[in-house]
Write a structure and sequence with these properties.
Layout lengths: L27 H8 L5 E2 L11 H8 L14 H11 L6 E4 L2 H12 L5 E5 L5 H8 L3 E5 L8 H5 L6 E7 L11 H10 L5 E5 L24 E6 L12 E4 L2 H10 L7 H11 L2 H24 L3 E3 L5 E5 L4 H10 L2 E2 L1 E3 L4 E8 L3 H21 L7
Parallel strand pairs: 1-11, 3-4, 3-5, 5-6, 6-7
Antiparallel strand pairs: 2-8, 7-8, 9-10, 10-13, 12-13
This protein binds pyridoxal-5'-phosphate.
The site of pyridoxal-5'-phosphate (PLP) has 14 residues, from helix 4.
């Protein structure tokens, strides 16, 4: 339905007119239904291909007996486990229905019409959506080598800025910021700006200069660090993430938080996952090995990609990615075109299981071959 013929748009808050919903990766079941196939490969949403660990699965299953009860609205045990994991106070922990929920809590708490939020070109799609849903204005700093240009971002801070969003590392580019420039950027921010550092892929990053900004909270009372259980912990289906901040910032966000925003199986599984660092290590090792397989395969295909510290790689196809993505779907391989991030020639590919990655590479080779064969012959070629 478009705005032009919408029967209820005039009743909606004005900022809703300009919103377009977040586009998630196509579910496997949907593609299988469409193609009449049974073994589609989904490499579109940066999930952990190993799934969750045994401890989390058991904690989840143990909740089956008490599904008639509301969850603990204060998430006492989970917030305690998170606080202990980070050496912080439980009053600094805000849990969310995915870290997405926490990003939205930040927006609803600190943004309003007339206020500005600031983020980088090619940054995570939820920042503009949360900003606009709150009726605030987005300022977008140009990227540098696909990543955040902190100087360009600092130049856009104004007296109206209330929130700065930094994805470290960033999705969909896989780029990251080292400790030193990020810390200098935070030091330079005026005190009326809340700085959000979104660390959804924290565990995957193995760069020595990559910072754990949860350790900086004592130095920056305006800092909010977000983490998720959806990526390396393999609990995407349960929707659970968290924010770490000054207790007074957490207290404000708690005023707008929905009661019971994190369900009981999610709380239980997340707490168990935090205690299962073996699974995290296994998952990171898997990702390291399979990232090498995937990038070696891309190299054989003569493709360029943006160097990534995450569990996905964003490939430059040198031509519009849409048709390639459509052809891959017909091969039963679901990836993520990122034209909505200002990257029309790129395709984001999550790192999957070994055989899934092989299937993706073989399908990509066939698709690119066919595109080559059907392309109009170049003069002199
Ligand atoms: C996946 C992702 C998130 C949030 O995921 P949730 O499932 O809502 O926890 C946040 N930020 C970035 C950059 C992501 O890629």
């Amino acid at each position: 339905m478009t705005n032009a013929d919408h029967p209820f748009l005039h009743l909606a808050a004005p900022q809703i007119a300009g919103l377009t919903p977040y586009v998630p990766g196509k579910p496997v079941s949907e593609l299988e239904r469409e193609l009449g196939i049974s073994e589609a490969v989904k490499l579109a949403s940066n999930e952990n291909p190993l799934g969750c660990g045994e401890a989390a699965r058991e904690a989840y299953l143990n909740c089956a007996a008490a599904l008639g009860r509301y969850p603990d609205g204060g998430a006492f045990a989970l917030r305690g486990a998170i606080a202990e994991h980070h050496g912080l106070d439980p009053a600094q922990v805000t849990v969310g229905n995915g870290s997405n929920d926490v990003l939205d809590l930040v927006a609803r708490t600190f943004l309003q019409p007339g206020a500005e939020s600031l983020f980088s070109e090619h940054a995570f799609a939820v920042y503009p959506i949360a900003t606009q849903a709150a009726g605030a204005t987005a300022r977008v700093a140009p990227a540098r080598d696909y990543g955040h240009d902190l100087a360009a971002m600092a130049a856009l801070v104004s007296e109206r800025t209330r929130v700065v969003w930094i994805a470290n590392p960033n999705n969909p580019t896989g780029t990251w910021l080292p400790a030193e420039p990020l810390r200098a950027f935070l030091e330079g921010l005026p005190t009326h700006v809340i700085a959000v550092v979104d660390e959804a892929y924290f565990e995957y990053v193995e760069e020595p200069e990559y910072p754990d900004t949860s350790r900086w909270l004592a130095d920056f009372p305006n800092l909010v660090v977000t983490r998720t259980f959806a990526k390396v912990h393999g609990l995407a289906a349960l929707r659970v993430g968290y924010g770490l901040s000054h207790p007074a910032v957490a207290e404000l966000m708690n005023r707008v938080r929905h009661p019971f925003n994190v369900n009981e199986p999610a709380q239980a599984a997340a707490a168990a996952a935090l205690g299962d660092m073996d699974h995290v290590q296994r998952s990171v090792a898997h990702n390291r090995a399979e990232m090498a397989r995937v990038t070696a395969g891309l190299e054989r295909l003569g493709l360029d990609w943006i160097p990534s510290v995450c569990n996905f790689v964003t490939v430059d196809l040198g031509r519009p990615a849409g048709p390639v993505d459509q052809a891959l779907l017909r091969e039963g391989v679901i990836c993520r075109p990122v034209a909505n991030y200002g990257l029309p020639n790129h395709l984001r590919i999550s790192i999957g299981l070994a055989d899934e990655n092989e299937r993706m590479l073989a399908a990509l080779a066939r698709v690119l071959d066919e595109a080559e064969a059907s392309a109009p012959a170049e003069a002199g070629a």
